Amino acid sequence: MRRSVLVAAAILLGATAVVAQQAEIEQSHALMKANGKNLGGVLSPMARGDKPYDQAAINTALTQLDETAKKLPSLYPASVKAVKQTSEYTPSPKIWDDRPGFDAAIAAFSKAVTEAKGKIKDVDSLKATLPTIGKSCSGCHETFRVKNS
Ligand code: HEC
């Protein structure tokens, strides 16, 4: 009886750890998807003139990007390395093998977003600033993101 309780507790603990890692990776997917929405659904269409310029929507998008930049350093702990990925993209092992490189990619993204916050005031400044943000996304993805096959 006592033994089976212990076994059940051990299984539960193991399961809790897996659930926690799964939750971490879900959080990173959710933040990245929000990044994608802000860039592809708000900032880019406004820069192209497909959507009317909307400073409030831009500020909201930049705030979300800024929050993601702040969360990124703790988003991919080594514990998620072994979690099986079912989404389209997955973190590359390079995140843990080249931590300084990953930190530099986060810093570039954070800098691009911080500078954009002070600069974007109209369509022209949006057009001028957006490529820097876009490059900081792809700069990280090129090395630290892999497509699930
Ligand atoms: C410092 C690294 C880094 C930066 C900067 C970064 N990303 Fe990502 N992104 C990743 C990694 C790693 C993944 C794969 C794992 C995941 O989804 O968390 C990813 C995945 C994604 C995905 C796919 C999500 C999924 O669930 O498959 C989208 C969309 C995305 N990023 C958009 C963006 C956009 C847009 C920006 C810039 C505004 C950005 N990312 C900036 C590292 C980064």
How would you describe this structure to a colleague?
The chain is mainly alpha-helical. It has a domain at 35-73 and 86-147: Up-down Bundle (Four Helix Bundle (Hemerythrin (Met), subunit A)), CATH 1.20.120.10. The protein contains five helices and two strands. Strands 1-2 form a two-stranded antiparallel ribbon. The longest helix is centred in the N-terminal third of the chain and has 47 residues, at 2-48. Heme C is lined by residues 28-29, 32-33, 35-36, 39, 65, 72, 87-91, 105-106, 109, 133, 136-137, 140-141, 144-145. InterPro entries: Cyt_c/b562, Cyt_c_II, Cyt_c_prime. GO terms for molecular function: electron transfer activity; heme binding; iron ion binding.
Overall geometric form: elongated
Largest sheet: 2 strands, antiparallel
Small molecules bound in the structure, each named once? heme C
Distance N terminus to C terminus?
46 Å
Q: For the largest sheet, list the strands in their spatial order.
A: 1-2
State the helicity in percent bands: over 70%
Total strand count, please? 2
CATH superfamily heading of the domain at 35-73 and 86-147: Cytochrome c/b562
Structural class: mainly alpha
Show unreliable segments: none
Q: And the CATH topology of the domain at 35-73 and 86-147? A: Four Helix Bundle (Hemerythrin (Met), subunit A)
What is the level-2 CATH architecture name of the domain at 35-73 and 86-147?
Up-down Bundle
Radius of gyration based on Cα positions:
19 Å
**Beta-strand percentage range:** under 5%
Q: Just give the CATH class of the domain at 35-73 and 86-147.
A: Mainly Alpha
The string of secondary-structure elements, in order, is HHEHHHE
Mean pLDDT: 91
